[in-house]
Design brief:
Length: about 230
């Protein structure tokens, strides 16, 4: 509903919805949802949708060719990936910004740390009628986190770019398991490991999870810091 409302709100005012997205998994989910919205007439069926990420395009091809490994039928895959126009060529990517018509552009990277999405941000972020819609967790220190936090400008390619576009974040699309889900998974192990390492996450959250693993499972657990070494 949040995604459909964001699309409707942006396109009604004549803007472009830019979605910085992770190339594998998240981009395909977004295209699937947008296709559903079109089929249910939640958004205009004629609204152009572009997938501008070579990696996301290649991942979509793999989804399409290996339907035995996911839940979509071949027919659902055909309908889903027909929703978006694939933008492979650099000049085609640049042309999207010269097209002022309402549209949805999905482009990597998901935290706006690199990739084609930066060129779209430079062009679209200064215009209030547009929207920048992040599609998941934004790690501290990333350009995405800076924009979501309400920064008035952000540096891209050495230039300070004003952020006048509407900014939203679909945090509910995060693919990260929470602490309860991780512990439930760990409880399924047939035997305890010699050591558990937590190597991904914000420092405070990682340390809290370490304490839960040690306290609830009785396992030795460590949160390594940069340049720490362990012998396995």
């Amino acid at each position: 509903t949040v995604l459909a409302d964001a699309i409707t709100r942006t396109t009604r005012r004549g803007g472009t919805l830019l979605i910085p997205s992770f190339a594998v998994g998240r981009s395909q989910m977004l295209i699937y949802l947008i296709g559903k919205f079109k089929a249910n007439k939640r958004i205009p069926q004629s609204l152009p949708v572009f997938l501008d990420s070579p990696m996301a395009i290649e991942a979509s091809r793999i989804f399409h060719e290996h339907t035995e490994d996911h839940r979509l039928t071949p027919e659902e895959c055909d309908r889903t990936f027909a929703t978006a126009t694939y933008v492979r060529d650099v000049e085609e990517s640049k042309a999207l910004n010269r097209n002022s018509a309402p549209k949805v552009v999905i482009s990597a990277s998901g935290m706006a740390t690199g990739g084609r999405v930066l060129h779209h941000l430079k062009y679209l972020a200064p215009e209030p009628r547009n929207m920048i819609l992040f599609a998941g967790f934004q790690a501290g220190g990333t350009r995405g986190a800076t924009i979501v936090s309400g920064a008035e400008t952000v540096k891209i390619h050495g230039d300070e770019v004003p952020i006048r576009a509407e900014v939203e974040n679909l945090e509910m699309l995060s693919a990260h398991a929470d602490a309860d889900e991780i512990l439930a998974w760990l409880r399924g192990f047939e035997r305890a490991p010699k050591m558990a390492f937590i190597t991904h996450g914000e420092p405070a959250a990682a340390d809290a999870l370490r304490k839960r693993i040690q306290g609830e499972l009785g396992w030795p657990c460590s949160v390594p810091e940069q340049l720490d070494a362990s012998t396995l």
